[in-house]
Amino acid sequence: MDATQQAKTTAVKGTNTAREVRPLVKNIYQSAHEAKANGRKVAYMMVASHYDEILRAMDIVPLPTENYAGLCAAKRDMDRFLLKAEADGYSQVLCSYARIGLGFDSLRKELGRIPDNSPDGGMPLPDMMLGSSAVCDPRFKWYQAASRYLEVPTFSIDVVAPPPQADLNQVRDHYIRYQRAQFQGLIEFLEKQTHRKMDKERLWEAIRLGDQAWRLWHDIDRLRVAVPSPMPSQDHFSIMVAGHYYTGTQTAVDFYQRLYDEVKHKAEHKIGVIADEKYRILYGGGLPPWHTLWIFNYFESFGAVFAIENVYRGFDPVEVPAHVQDPVDYLAWRAFLRATRYHEKARAHSGNPTVEKLLGLIQDYAIDGVVFHACRSCRATTIGQTHIKSELGKHCDLPMMQLVSDMVDLRDYSEAQWKAQIGAFMEALAARAGSNRAS
């Protein structure tokens, strides 16, 4: 790639608060290094596994390995880790997040130290690795594979959801009991590693802060129905750091309160992301291209703003029954309710919870077109994406486009091809807008 392409990575943000995220990201890794120096426990962990508040309550410092892969891509310093993992025998079609993490761990073991000039100082050696089945299988198997390079205890939990065809009234108790047992097993493992018991009051406090932050995040997204759009998707892919990596902390609550105030002001005063908003786009699915987030600004050059997205989203608020008085029971109930939020709508309409969610976003945010990103190495968000696109088309007549690359591996990306596709997509949006005006 030439020097010009090398310089293009992150996108220009639409809010001032989103520009505060970079220090939060740096602090993730700085805090982990400081914790190691001070004898506190550090854990490799997976995002959106519903166990974040447990770690906070146990005073364990989370080290999100998937986030580190995205950071490496944003810094265009992923190739040495990807190639090292592939040299160790991992296929190029394996999750590129996992390949970066495994390559980093392999290099660190080979060198006997953190590789030179690693983004944000690199990841320190963890004291434990906490896997999860949530979202995809590599999140369960990744840390088992990492045991080739790390001699630390590993524990993985199952995070499950019934299929949309299931009668929730019949399966609810079974799923909640099972999820509670998974969380309780994790707590017992952590108690052995830390040599102290879980403090339920601390867990309740972390849950309270977690729910407060996620509620604020949800309220921010509801403000984004405003026309013109007060906050674009490229900001979302930054601000999600507070919710996903600072869950259960006052830091996340304070950050989202500042962002809420800013987005509310913009919405009330009709301050848009761009001066002349012509089209509102839904980012329909697929992990973001961390290596090329500037592409969102390219869409804006056509007058198109990504008004909302369906990836790395905050969980919609759910109401756990008042009779639930134990914090671990609460976490199990909340995980179940989050996972089944769109099941009843799906049973009554399209049969697919993701389609129902997308249809709701299209209506609420006055969407003109939908863009998907098919990531070559992410089976979880790519397999079935064409089907979702097809099913969505049965219920709306919007132009849709599927871009193809990878979330962090730049070898699967073609700037020329993307720009050609985007140009054709924008022509379709313009033609549809013209047809609507004529009618």
Can you put this structure into words, describing what you see?
- The chain has helices at residues 3-7, 21-37, 52-57, 65-74, 79-87, 96-111, 138-146, 168-194, 200-223, 233-245, 250-268, 295-300, 327-339, 343-348, 353-364, 379-382, 385-393, 415-438, and strands at 42-45, 61-64, 128-132, 154-157, 279-285, 304-309, 369-375, 400-405.
- The chain is of the alpha/beta class and 439 residues long.
- The strands form two sheets. It has a four-stranded parallel sheet, sandwiched between helices. It has a four-stranded parallel sheet with strand order 6-5-7-8, with helices on both faces.
- It is globular, with a radius of gyration of 22 Å.
Short précis:
This protein is of the alpha/beta class and 439 residues long.
Helix/strand layout:
Layout: H1 3-7, H2 21-37, E1 42-45, H3 52-57, E2 61-64, H4 65-74, H5 79-87, H6 96-111, E3 128-132, H7 138-146, E4 154-157, H8 168-194, H9 200-223, H10 233-245, H11 250-268, E5 279-285, H12 295-300, E6 304-309, H13 327-339, H14 343-348, H15 353-364, E7 369-375, H16 379-382, H17 385-393, E8 400-405, H18 415-438
Parallel strand pairs: 1-2, 1-3, 3-4, 5-6, 5-7, 7-8
Helix pairs in contact: 2-10, 4-6, 5-6, 6-7, 8-13, 9-11, 15-17
